[in-house]
Amino acid sequence: MTNPAPMRTGVRRPFGRYVEHDPRSLAYAHGVLPGSAIKPVTWTRRIPVLDQGQLGSCTGNAGTGLLGTDSAGRRGLTTVTITTAAAQASHGRFAAGEHALDEAFAVALYSLATVLDEISGQYPPTDTGSSGLGAAKALQTLGLAARYTHAFSLAALDSALQTGPVMIGIPWLDSMFTPGPDGEIRVDRESPVAGGHEIELAGLDEAGRYWLTNSWGSAWGVAGSGYVTAGDLAWLLSQQGDVTIPAWASPSKPAPQRKRCWLGNAWLTARAFTRRG
Fold it and tell me: What's the mean pLDDT in 50-58?
């Protein structure tokens, strides 16, 4: 999925999420809890909402947002420590030491993702965009994630949300740019696709609405967040979407990489993202 043309209103927003699917990811499917175990949940973010400006770094921003958000196993971080071994594995993108989880970190994470993904080109110098898979590989290379899994249904996504936030890659439609006063992101399925976007999903409320934290600054939506309904999210994910769930690790050393291959064709279907009864 390529970077978008400017909006028809003349207001440009940055994107940068590409479709990068590997059939071997099916071996790393996230488990599904019984329906009775699924509860409303909101995971608190401990870092400010970031703003990617005009750079296509949404994948790095989403990954950074996950690091800075609470999960069942830990409080969201505001800084991380990159070990010497992790810095050496980062292709020059990170120095060893403590790093604040800010926009500079998100850009560096995006830059590393462009090295590790299967998309042509790297940033810098070229703002190629990347993928959720690339961002997960970058988190693993830095020793911040031990592994990662993928949700292939709303039931699996709901199950993953019980223990922490996830990042999703979806098409962003023209109708979605300006949420309503209550944060509703309008998904008009006839609306043109503006681009591909990676975004943090950190909440499921009592009304069954999924809350997304964007990377376009706190002035967007409700303090940088908005929601989509279950039906709309299922449809968006059926349009070559993906859900990636990192499992956090102590950053003692870079974790070994899972080998991946590029698959450019459609992968997930509407059937795959039908909510289970």
Answer: 96
Buried-state track 172-186, b at ≥16 Cβ within 10 A, e below 16: bbbebbebeeebbbb
CA atoms within 13 A on the CB side of 81: 7
More confident residue, 275 or 139: 139
Nearest to 169 by CA among 194, 149, 199: 199
For residue 98, the SS3 value is strand
Torsion angle (degrees, nearest 10) of CA 165, 98, 131, 161: -10
Measure the CA–CA gap between 232 and 188, rounded to whole angstroms.
Answer: 9
User: Reduced to 3 states, what is the DSSP secondary structure of residue 154?
Assistant: helix
Average pLDDT, the chain: 87
Contacts of 143 (CB under 8 A, 6+ apart): 82, 83, 85, 86, 249, 250, 251, 252, 253, 254, 255
Tokens of 120: 């042509």
Angle of helix 132-141 versus helix 103-116 axis, rounded to 10: 100
